[in-house]
TrEMBL record:
This is DegT/DnrJ/EryC1/StrS family aminotransferase. The lineage of its organism: Bacteria, Pseudomonadati, Pseudomonadota, Alphaproteobacteria, Rhodobacterales. GO terms for molecular function: transaminase activity. Signal peptide: none annotated. Belongs to the DegT/DnrJ/EryC1 family. It comes from Salipiger mangrovisoli. Keywords: Aminotransferase, Pyridoxal phosphate, Transferase.
Length: 408
């Protein structure tokens, strides 16, 4: 049984848990990984006669989970993004639209191909600004849509806009594995969906990722790009040989395969994912309830059409000065609560903003800057109990109130 952090109540309450401690890998995953280690066939194409690789089985299971026809398991979520761009034929110098509120691997995947990221604004709901997107769609033929920190925009409207403009959509689902909009799983609206299994995502293999699509040609290109050589027939969630005949001699090998060890760790986690999503959302709602009505703090109201996965929570301190926000961060940290701030002028750990990426020059975006400056972010690992979440909310509420009253 997981032990939960204790609290100190001699003066002000303090949280003593870790915001980066994950739950252990399921015992079934550990046993499967040990079996792979014992036989030594970690490479996905190194199989014994009659054996099906763990990676091929995982691809088949993840395709079924998302409802996709095809799935390719790869080395990382970032690799999946780059692979998707290559599969769509993005060329050096080509403009690719993406969110201004995202993480560095998204514009990084675009720039790694020599393509040019063009940023689209963010709303107070922390989703892509669809009016800004509509104005910028004529610039590009590809949108790399980041469902940043698990927030889904109105995907019906977005796809109507993109379809009308002839723009292909790649969905970055690093934070939305298991989420859905109006019943359609995240990653299944556009041409390609990309997912991550990095430690802080919804399944944990250290690094890893998936690419899913219903398009046979895109899937065949992705398999060849991932480094299948001519062993594509060993995939269970890939198109038939006729699709590979069209692409196998003209698609470069940009090796980024997942291995059987990571696949063995992930298969039991995939089976557990629906139950884990419910646990994350219980924790999200506990923190949300504790923060609701805090003066100076704006919560993100989740739409009824969105089935989200609350592995992190965000709130806004709109129009606060940077000095007041830094004071809030320091006060919360002193009480054991680790908040990340996406509005800082310099990147810190994983936080950064569109004007941090100097390889992708952009025009100023004042309305977006106002929102980015006010974004607070906090992980909600499943090692937290519901009592922990209530305590964390009390601490944040108290410190927001204190700083807000001082500034009033």
């Amino acid at each position: 049984m997981t032990e939960h952090p204790k609290t100190e109540t001699l003066t002000a309450e303090r949280f003593t848990g870790s915001f980066t401690q994950q739950e252990p890998i399921p015992e079934a995953g550990i046993a499967a990984a040990l079996e792979v280690l014992r036989h030594g066939r970690l490479h996905r194409y190194n199989t014994a006669p009659g054996e099906t690789a763990e990676t091929a089985l995982l691809e088949q299971e993840f395709a079924a989970f998302t409802g996709a026809r095809y799935c390719v398991a790869v080395a990382s979520g970032g690799y999946a993004l780059g692979c998707a761009l290559r599969a769509l034929g993005v060329q050096p110098g080509e403009t690719v639209l993406t969110n201004a509120f995202t993480l560095a691997p998204v514009p990084g995947a675009i720039a790694s191909l020599g393509a040019v990221p063009a940023f689209v604004g963010v709303t107070e709901d922390l989703v892509i600004d669809l009016d800004d997107l509509a104005a910028k769609l004529p610039q590009a033929r590809v949108l790399m849509l980041s469902h940043m920190r698990g927030h889904l925009c109105d995907m019906d409207r977005l796809m109507a806009l993109c379809d009308a403009a002839g723009v292909q959509v790649i969905e970055d689902c690093a934070h939305t594995m298991g989420a859905a909009w109006n019943g359609t799983p995240s990653g299944r609206h556009g041409a390609i969906g990309c997912y991550s299994t990095q430690t802080y995502k919804h399944m944990n293999s250290g690094e890893g990722g998936f690419l899913v699509t219903d398009d046979a040609d895109l899937a065949a290109r992705a398999v060849m790009l991932s480094g299948s050589y001519m062993l594509y027939e060993r995939h269970l969630a890939a198109p038939g040989p006729e699709a590979f005949e069209r692409v196998k001699y003209v698609t470069p090998n940009v090796s980024g395969r997942m291995d059987n060890l990571r696949a063995a760790l992930l298969r039991p986690q995939l089976a557990d994912l629906p139950a884990q999503i419910d646990r994350w959302n219980d924790r999200y709602r506990a923190v949300e309830a504790g923060l609701r009505g805090t003066p100076g703090l704006t919560l993100i109201e989740r739409p009824a059409a969105e089935r989200f996965v609350g592995s992190s929570i965000q709130a806004l301190v709109l129009d606060w000065s940077p000095e007041a926000i830094r004071q809030l961060l320091a006060r919360c940290a002193a009480r054991g609560v680790e908040l990340k701030w996406f509005g800082g002028r310099e990147p810190v750990a994983f936080t950064s903003r569109y004007d941090s990426w100097r390889y992708a020059p952009s025009e100023p975006m004042p309305a977006t800057d106002r929102i980015l400056t006010g974004i607070l972010d906090m992980r909600l690992p499943l090692t937290f109990s519901l009592d922990d979440c209530a305590l964390i909310a009390r601490i944040i509420r108290a410190e927001v109130s204190a700083v807000y009253q001082q500034a009033a």
